[in-house]
Write a structure and sequence with these properties.
It is a single chain. The protein is of the alpha/beta class and 283 residues long. The protein has a single domain (12-271), classed as NAD(P)-binding Rossmann-like Domain (Rossmann fold, 3-Layer(aba) Sandwich), CATH 3.40.50. Helix content is 38%, strand content 13%. An eight-stranded mixed beta sheet has the order 3-2-1-4-5-6-7-8, with helices on both faces.
Length: 283
């Protein structure tokens, strides 16, 4: 069990994209069950999902992990996941929208990078469906339960702001920018309901399957998925009550600092509010 100062006893979470053996979804699921939560782990790959769920059960105890094969781009699947979670685990308090992909993972290309005009419409549509449509559908399905109980956590894994607009990063970058914009809107619309909305990103290239096997980077020098574990437990806990509309960089999360200094070092406002209001609004 992963020791944590923040207990999640009695809490139930859903983590999307939780199957990959080197993924952030698996790492966060292990952290959540280690802190006492029960977790529905979602993925489209049954084989790797069952493996990761088995590891989560060993970390958190029997019955703590519920593997569900589901496609986050399918509205019926999103609703099924919520129903199954509430029925089998007894509630739903935390949603971690982690599932993500790119055109290479989906088999649309073998190229590591593409210019926008080289991207097929099918690849563009599918990546946007997973990386932005998925978080929308999952949040839409889960938020009613959270609002009814007047407590909930929606945590979105987007990407570094510079990655969103970096050359040759379409459609991944724009899809994650859309997810972050959605989070900013959700933050405002859920203000005062007891449901908080925050973003958590690793802080740079991470050692996950989003990078191809032939990546030129040394994987041992990349950010490792377990960097997400401690901040996601804090964000999912009662300790983060009142924290809403923030984005946290996991790589900057320093457990040696007092919590307020830690939040200042790792956090900022979600999306791009630092640019100020740009439009002239009618009175």
């Amino acid at each position: 069990m992963i020791l944590s100062a923040f207990s999640l006893e009695g809490k139930v979470a859903v983590v999307t994209g939780a199957g990959s053996p080197i993924g952030m979804g698996r790492a966060m699921s292990l952290a959540l069950v280690g802190a006492g939560a029960r977790v529905t782990m979602i993925d489209i790959n049954k084989e790797t999902l069952m493996q990761s769920a088995s590891e989560a059960s060993k970390a958190g105890g029997e019955g703590c992990a519920l593997p569900v094969v589901a496609d986050v781009t399918n509205p019926s699947d999103a609703e099924m996941v919520v129903r199954k979670t509430v029925t089998e685990l007894g509630g739903l308090h935390i949603l971690v929208n982690n599932a993500g992909t790119n055109q290479r993972n989906l088999g649309f290309t073998t190229a590591l990078r593409q210019r926008f005009w080289e991207i097929s419409p099918e690849a563009w549509t599918k990546v946007l469906a997973v990386n932005c449509g998925g978080p929308f559908l999952m949040a839409r399905a889960a938020v009613g339960q959270m609002m009814q109980q007047k407590w909930g956590r929606i945590i979105g894994v987007t990407t570094s702001l510079d990655t969103m607009i970096r050359q040759n990063m379409s459609p991944y970058g724009p899809s994650k920018a859309a997810h972050e914009a959605l989070m900013a809107i959700m933050t405002q619309e859920l203000e005062g309901t007891g449901v908080t909305v925050n973003v958590l990103v690793p802080g740079g290239p991470a050692n996950t399957n989003l990078l191809p096997p032939d990546t030129p980077w040394d994987r041992s020098k990349l950010i490792q998925p377990d960097v997400m574990q401690k901040p996601v437990v804090w964000l999912a806990s009662e300790a983060s009550n009142g924290i809403n509309g923030r984005r946290f960089i996991a790589h900057r999360w320093d457990e040696n600092l007092p919590i307020q200094q830690r939040l200042e070092k790792a956090g900022a406002t979600v999306a791009w509010h630092q640019l100020g209001q740009q439009s002239v609004q009618p009175k």
